[in-house]
Amino acid sequence: MISAIWGAEALNRKGNLNTQGPFLRVMTTHTPVLPGEVLDALQPRPAGVYIDGTLGAGGHSQLILHAAGSGSRLLGLDADPDALARAAERLASFGERAVLVNSNFANLGEMAQEYSFIPCDGILLDLGLSSMQLTDGERGFSFQQDGPLDMRFDPTQPETAADLLNNLPEQELANLIYTYGEEHQSRRIARAIVQARPLRTTRQLADLIARVTGRGRQGIHPATRTFQALRIAVNEELQVLEQVLPQALHCLKPGGRLAVISFHSLEDRIVKNFFQQEARDCICPPEQPICTCDHHSTLTIVTRRPIQPTDEEVNRNPRSRSAKLRVAERLPDYLETNLG
Ligand SMILES: C[S@@+](CC[C@H](N)C(=O)[O-])C[C@H]1O[C@@H](n2cnc3c(N)ncnc32)[C@H](O)[C@@H]1O
């Protein structure tokens, strides 16, 4: 759902960003990961049409618009209105060329249609959360900052992490932590959470997990996986990723490219499987002797293996450490190519 649309020049309607008082500790910028690799993938060009489904601070969008040059346009989506305000400031110099919409990327097809961004030349999804969201304790994403157990990208969405933690039955909570966090101590953690309810703050949860699981392995905080699991569940991250991929493909013109950066194996697996399936002419089960699926490949995979940051990038921007970039290129429509 759209709750606001701002041309890049309209930041003043929202007012200046608050960098005073309690927000002082919040990181005011986000360094885009794999910047050169994203530009290599999308090959921005003059008059090109692009969609950034995860605008964040607008870092990648700025690079794309700058590299594409005159006449190019970009539609930027973000579920978080604060991110949109920052990006609007950063992209202000591009004027009408940047159209920023407060929307979940699950609506990418609808938004692209509404703002005349179909067909487009390139789409970027840089999944997960930004440095600003992570370091703002009030958003509840981090076990290193105390704050409410929120974790919503979209603050108008009804369910917070606290709602899940305080209401789910123990078994469901354990399954959630196991499935989305790949946490082997999920049952023990879920039991402790249920006994300690109600939980209100990130510090309470992080301390509880540390108490019941002991020290983390390899310097990783023991609450890392549980926090990841809750964030994925609150924002339905895997479901919306599955929804957006076919929409993105549909929006691209033949030869247009889709670039997806993921930060954990659950996301990367969804992207990899989608690309592999769409690159095949038949998706019947292997044991079936005759093809009945009538499926035709819609894309070609550009990156056989995911692109990962160099050591130099990881040193400069440690947040890029687990990034994986996969790129695919839209094929011409089967019917157009083969029947006329
Ligand atoms: C990693 S940051 C993007 C950073 C951006 N590429 C940059 O260079 O500044 C991810 C952003 O995507 C947003 N986001 C995550 N899931 C989303 C979704 N399903 N729909 C829309 N925005 C989403 C988050 O709010 C966050 O601002």
Structure report:
The protein is an alpha/beta fold and 340 residues long. It is 41% helix and 14% strand. An 8-stranded mixed β-sheet has the order 1-4-3-2-5-6-8-7, with helices on both faces. Strand 3, helix 4 (81-90) and strand 4 (98-102) form a beta-alpha-beta unit. The longest helix has 15 residues, at 237-251. The chain is globular and about 60 Å long. The chain starts with a strand and ends with a helix. Mean pLDDT is 90; it is low at 1-25. S-adenosylmethionine (SAM) binds at residues 30, 32, 54, 56-60, 77-80, 83, 104-106, 126, 128-130, 153, 240.
CATH class of the largest domain: Alpha Beta
Strand count, sense and closure of the main sheet? 8 strands, mixed
Q: How much of the residues is beta strand, in percent?
A: 5-15%
- Tell me the total number of β-strands: 8
Q: Nearest-angstrom radius of gyration?
A: 21 Å
Total number of domains: 2
Q: What CATH architecture of the largest domain would you give?
A: 3-Layer(aba) Sandwich
